[in-house]
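Lab manual, section 2.4: Encoding a predicted structure.

Procedure: take the sequence of the chain (242 residues), apply the prediction step described in section 2.3, and record the output as structure tokens. A sample record is shown.
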Amino acid sequence: MQVASLAEEATLKVGGHSLLVRAGALYHDIGKMENPQYFIENLHDSSNPHNELDERSSAKLIIGHVLKGVEIGIGTGRFALPLGIQDGVEPSAAMREIATRNGLLVYDGIAEYLPLADQSYDFALMVTTVCFVDNVKKSFRDINRILKPRGRFVVGLVDENSPLGAEYQKIKKSSRFYHIATFYSTDQVIASLSDTGFEDIEVVQTVFGNLDSIREVQPFTPGHGEGGFVAIKAVRKPGFQF
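Recorded output:
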């Protein structure tokens, strides 16, 4: 949290994208959440649990906090880069070229037929992409396939049932980007996740009020229905049969 706050303030001073930097800073230690007591910044007394471990076990805990992720619909890498995601799938040749120049490994493909090996990633990210896929459940099912046991899937979307979703619906027909989009409610996406082998679903929301009136980074809150942008985290269900 301290790193995120410092990075955000510094970015504001130079006129950068503070929300994106804050998200990247928050992510950089997310892999430590499972065993936080083994990392030095969380040691608040003289005891060190590594002293009770052999060298191999100690090293495994430290190295193992780095997770391998992939973004589905990575575009130019706008979200992947600050989040430390190195791999992506993108059908647009022009966007793949930009992302590759940015140092990312990008595969040509679509969400329904991912060109990725089974159980090859710890987590997958899909941001503002679900409204453009042809078959949501088929996409989610294939993402389930590429995740390791208990792998995480994070979906970010504009909630159709939110005030922001209503605004997007109004401009959809005249929009260069969204005229082909199909917006979904959070409940619909949750139902699709449940049907395709995901569980332990958690939801947070942000972007409250009119976009033109927002002047600072807004916090996120649990649930959905008020915030225009929703993030849903789901866990790959063990033993799910495709």
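Check your result against the sample. The CA atoms of residues 208 and 214 lie 8 Å apart.
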